[in-house]
Specification:
6 strands, alpha/beta, Spore Coat Polysaccharide Biosynthesis Protein SpsA, Chain A, 4-stranded mixed beta sheet, two-stranded parallel ribbon, about 50% helix, about 210 residues, globular
Length: about 210
């Protein structure tokens, strides 16, 4: 299966196309550079035993092993999510249809948007930080890649400020600043050591680009 031709990097297009031709009551989306443990779909199926659950996702872990990649994924794991990131995500079909799929106008942030619309429909989301899904992301493994990712996220951020102005604002993070952006750096010193903590600081400084 190949997604329809399109300009730019817009994951929503491929995901919507895959969902359109998929069969069954549950749809699983998995990025090509993520390799989940064997039981992840079993865990997802168990989660959907609760009819109020619309989305189940797993927060991926570092697979590259570089200092920067380890720091990037460490910070991702510290966030208290109000949405379901889409690198490894499973969605109830009727939930997907009810919200109309992913917004193909968003180059990034489509997972935030999809989650918020799902919650508006009365469904719950489950964010799993225990299941092991190594992520072999080339972008997060070097400084140039992190800058590229941040610029790409900023494109979505600017559009999300218009679509969800109560959540996305200039000079403001979508999650509590101290709890999700400062405390994790201090925690990294204890959990991962000073080098990874330094990488976390560098990543946070670069991420300022996204919020201006």
């Amino acid at each position: 299966m190949r997604e329809p031709p399109h300009k730019g990097n817009i994951p929503a297009i491929g995901r919507n196309y895959g969902a359109k031709i998929a069969e069954g009551e549950i749809i699983a989306f998995l990025d090509a550079d993520c390799f989940p443990e064997k039981k992840w779909l079993t865990k997802a199926s168990e989660a959907f035993g609760d009819q109020k659950v619309g989305i189940y996702c797993v927060i991926v872990r570092d697979g590259k092993g570089t200092y920067l990649s380890r720091a990037w994924h460490y910070l991702q794991m510290q966030i208290k999510y109000d949405f379901a990131p889409t690198r490894c995500i499973v969605v109830r079909r009727k939930t997907f249809d009810a919200v109309g799929g992913f917004d193909e106008n968003l180059p990034a942030g489509e997972d935030n948007d999809f989650s918020y619309r799902t919650i508006q429909q009365g469904y719950k989301i489950i964010v799993d930080k225990n299941t092991i899904v190594p992520h072999y992301d080339d972008h997060a493994s070097n400084l140039k890649g992190v800058i590229h990712l941040t610029k790409w996220y900023r494109q979505g951020e600017l559009l999300m400020r218009k679509k969800w102005p109560e959540k996305f604002k200039k000079f403001k993070t979508t999650t509590p600043f101290l709890e999700n952006h400062i405390v994790p750096i201090a925690r990294a010193i204890k959990d991962e050591g000073p080098i990874i903590a330094l990488m976390c600081i560098i990543i946070k400084i670069i991420s300022i680009i996204k919020h201006v």
